[in-house]
Automatic annotation (TrEMBL):
Protein name: Glyoxalase
Highest taxon in the source lineage: Bacteria
Organism whose genome encodes this protein: Sinorhizobium saheli
Domain called VOC: residue spans: 159-281
PANTHER family, per the entry: BNAUNNG04460D PROTEIN-RELATED, VOC DOMAIN-CONTAINING PROTEIN
Pfam (any one): SnoaL_3
CDD domains noted in UniProt: VOC_like (cd07246)
Amino acid sequence: MSTTESANAAEIRAAIDGWAEAMRQKDASRVLSYGTQDCLVYSLAPPLKASDADAEGLRQWFSTWKGPLGYRLQDLEITSSGDVGFATALAHLSGEKQDGAKVALWYRQTLGLKRTDGGWKIAHQHESVPFYMDGSFKAAIDLDPASKADWNAPSHPPMAGVIAYLNVEDANATAEFYGRAFGASEVTRKYAEDGQRLMHCHLTINGGALMLSDPFPEFGYPWKPPEGFVLHLVVDDADFWWKRAVEAGAEVTMPLEIAFWGDYYGQLRDPFGITWAIVAPVKKEA
């Protein structure tokens, strides 16, 4: 690296350090002072393309957080040529939202800078996270710099049928309850970086898959009361399944009895507001 390139890298690093500190202090005016007036932003949040010259919009976003932000860059690499510079890093954002939600995630950060009369300024920001290639298209916000993927590992076979994916207020408690009430066995459980909320939980009940996750309102997935659907369990011994669920704490909303269409049928509501139907064919007398 030439002397000029070394000097450029040091100046660019100083500008990025100042910008990052302004982010931590939630100082919108100071953050924008490190950018050009026409700075182009591809951020994690909508829209697809934006300008970072809106101080009021930045202040509004900062106001959704309690106290200072946790913001740092890891593996920062800087290159420059003439009056143009590029920087890449892994960024870590953490903090507490006004509603009490804890946020902690890693994402990819790319900055394009240009030298101006006022020093090096950020002209382009690009933030991104990978997404899971399993068909769910869920953002992979549970990754960190130590995460490793074995690309040579065999893929899981596709699961048949339509699989319910429930967004519940407390996925940990829900999964534990389903183990007691419905004999659920756990396939996998993945926590968010706050170590409390579940990004993904895969259960097997009665031979079928059921997926759970906690709400993540900061990423556009707030909790909503469940309505308009029933989880239908077709079993051999309805009395056994019914008794176990009721003893675990499920509420009877429709008694288990022979329905007009001929099946042995009843409905329960679990403590998380989900309605379950337990059904079995009526056994014919020998």
